[in-house]
Amino acid sequence: MKVLIIGGGVIGITTAYYLVNAGVSVTLLERNSAGGMEASAGNAGLVCPSDSFAWASPSALKMALKSLVYPDTGIKFRPGFDPHIVPWGLKFLGQCQPKKWRHNSDIKYRLAQYSLALMRELENKTNIEFDTLDNGIVYACRDQKSLRELEHHFDFLSERGLELRTLNKEELFHSNPALKSNPDIYAGAVYSPSCKTGDSRKFSQGLVQWCEARGNCFFEWNTKVQKINMSNGKISSVMTSKGEFEADAYVLCAGAYSGVLSRKIGIKLPIYPVKGFSISAPIVNPDMAPATGFDDVQKMVAVTRMGDRIRITSSAVFSGFNLDHTPEDFKSILNLAREVFPEAADYNRAEYWSGLRPMTPSSTPIIGASSVKNLFLNTGHGHLGWTLACASGRLTADNIVGSKPDIEYANAVRG
């Protein structure tokens, strides 16, 4: 059996890995170079079932309105009219009911837990290196009121079995001694010990090498899809900048661009590109860098240690496929890094990045068969692509080869 995967970020590459393990011949097409990988290259690096809450919630509209008044908040709407935001936004609002928020968050959590278990298995099998740390994640609050609210918020996941601990100020300093340099910032935190961190770019590159070494897996970089040819309700071939490719089955894993490609064959995917920003700075004082994954809850900024660098990420900007950025876009995350971990890294040598998250109205990914007989979908992971990659890759491979999946997941848009 031959499978062609469109999209070479962490989702597409992980899907290739599980198909190779199932004995399938795989070819993957990616429009960028092997080191580009768009959203997979600059994400927060958190593998976090603790962050499984759906974005569409009863408080989402309030947060959106707040962002119009306070520009430093994590969510931003940029001037200009994008016609695609209207239908997507209406569907998003329809998912903001409490019952739907609980349902969608429950789906994400169970998928994330399964994915974390699979990632640990993958690490043991492949021995790839990706700057992984198994020290958990702390969600830090700047005052006691916010800490109590966060504890209540996390009750949802505690009830579903996720281990969580509340840390007072002293316990927070013990988990991250670098915070002692400015002891008045935080009042405490909620700690998720089972979560982990790592570099998804290194993870993906390691999997590419592992798959190539096994044979029957081919990666075509700098290859742009130009046309998807159809015959009798099925894909017959894919025309690209490097020629024509044929397969028995096809998988769409093109992230934020999945909807653009799927529309060419009559499938409308409810995916909107949500822009995020990150900076990566070289560590100059390891003792002053974060010892765990770190999230400032009020500022909505995450800080992650990745080998000899730290990654600082934030923002959800709704501005279509516009990838432009200015120094102002990075001001809030750079200010937080210098406030909280001032001696950890050389921020004057920071690398700046922006990328697009493929967000669905429900915040749950689209995984499964489509209305096109031999096309499978694995896309729409939003801000949890790195966390959900192993689960969605394994489920997709199971669907294609006809294996019974370990967990049930039904969120495919058939078009």
Question: Helix count, per DSSP?
Answer: 11
Binned strand content? 25-35%
Task: Give the overall pLDDT as a whole number.
Answer: 93
The CATH class label is Alpha Beta
End-to-end Cα distance, whole Å, is 25 Å
Largest sheet data: 9 strands, mixed
Number of strands: 20
Q: Can you identify the CATH superfamily?
A: FAD/NAD(P)-binding domain
* CATH domain fold name: FAD/NAD(P)-binding domain
How many domains is the backbone divided into? 1
User: Radius of gyration from the CA trace?
Assistant: 21 Å
Global morphology: globular
Low-confidence stretches: none
CATH architecture: 3-Layer(bba) Sandwich
Helix content: 25-40%
Assign the structural class, choosing from mainly alpha, mainly beta, alpha/beta, alpha+beta, or little secondary structure. Answer: alpha/beta
Structural notes for this entry:
- This protein is α/β, with parallel strands linked by helices and 415 residues long.
- It has one domain (2-401): FAD/NAD(P)-binding domain, CATH 3.50.50.
- 32% of the residues lie in helices and 25% in strands.
- The chain has 11 helices and 20 strands.
- The strands form 4 sheets. Strands 4, 5, 6, 7, 14, 15, 16, 17 and 18 form a 9-stranded mixed β-sheet that branches.
- Helix 1 packs parallel to helix 11 and helix 5 crosses helix 11 (385-401).
- The longest helix has 29 residues, at 98-126.
- The radius of gyration is 21 Å and the shape is globular.
- 47% of the residues are buried.
- The model has no long low-confidence stretch (mean pLDDT 93).
